[in-house]
Amino acid sequence: MAWTKYQLFLAGMMLTTGSINTLSAKWADLFSANGCHGDPEHTFSHPFVQAVGMFLGEFSCLAVFYILLFHDRRSPEPRMNPGQKFNPLLFFPPAMCDMTATSIMYVALNMTSASSFQMLRGAVIIFTGLLSVAFLGRRLAPSQWIGIFITILGLVVVGLADFVSGHRDDSHKLSDVITGDLLIIMAQIIVSVQMVLEEKFVYKHDVHPLRAVGTEGLFGFVVLSLLLIPMYFIHTGNFSDNPRQVLEDALDAFCQIGHKPLILLALLGNTVSIAFFNFAGISVTKEISATTRMVLDSLRTLVIWVVSLALGWEQFHGLQVLGFLVLLTGTALYNGLHRPVLARIPWCATRMNLEEDSSDAERERLLNNGRVQASEDT
User: What angle do CA 242, 248, 249 make, to 5 degrees?
Assistant: First the structure.
């Protein structure tokens, strides 16, 4: 069945904005500018300020939701289901998980390459699968267990590629690369907790996906913005790259933006892209399929890698190719992308029909949250 122009537009928007989201965040990390009070030129290392911008993008999804709802109610035949009323505090625990994981990942992005950052986020399917079995009583299909083990193998290969590149490249120290990779894996554990919380407490309330994303974005934006105040006074020594060596110096970030406005463009790219990415992802799931969304998300990793190589942000390493292919295989198996091929084999088709119901339902609910965390979020 051929795609309509609108479906092609949505797929292109998801692929483009998803790629811009990671690339713009990495672009901001590569800038250097003077700080406040005559501080010498230094790199823009403000992961928590970047995370605030990301939550502002998610928060904007709430405005999009109400605009669409207002437009729908003015039409002769309203079709939009706004969902039932709910207590917004239901979203506070998953929002705090999102805030913590996103902040950790932006710290890690300063330490490693954009392509490795995106590939390692695929670890989320390992922890989501295990936590779903432990706390939601879900049974995984054999293909999903195989996908988890293959994903673990892919993570090892990507980590080994980063270890080798850490000895050859001058852009990142080996200790920073290893620390960054470990932080990304740690963040995926928190993301998995977030997804299980949403599955257990949120989805049963029939909340519109845009409203869910926007509400979590609101909590994350407000809480993290307030936390920037104590972070300004928490000294962390050499762990921080800002002149005052504090956990986060938001004033230094604004001064650097004032001295080099291009940094603001990178931050706006991150904020705007996450909003459009969430909207496009939800629309792709609705208009085409969850499987298509997963395929596009895997392509996003490839686009980020190719663009990073073209811009000279990183060097080509053959092990990374192998790692990407192994991770892609694991993600495909976990998300059932192998089924259309095996469905053509009669005895395989019969066996798959017995396995697939619960895993498909879980994947649809997780995807409707407006993030693509299993790569492939925030």
Answer: 65
Phi and psi dihedrals of 302, rounded to 5?
Answer: -65, -45
pLDDT tens figures, 253-281? 999 999 999 999 999 999 999 988 888 88
Rg value, the chain, Cα: 21
32-33 and 42-43 strand pairing = antiparallel
Indicate the SS3 state at residue 108: helix
Does the pTM surpass 0.90? The reply is no
| Cα 56 from Cα 278, distance rounded (Å) | 13
* DSSP result, 354-366: HHHHHHHHHHHHH
Q: Which of 215, 244, 9, 23 is nearest to 118 (CA)?
A: 23
pLDDT in tens, 100-140: 999 999 999 988 888 889 899 888 889 988 988 888 788 88
The CA distance from 82 to 65, in Å, is 9
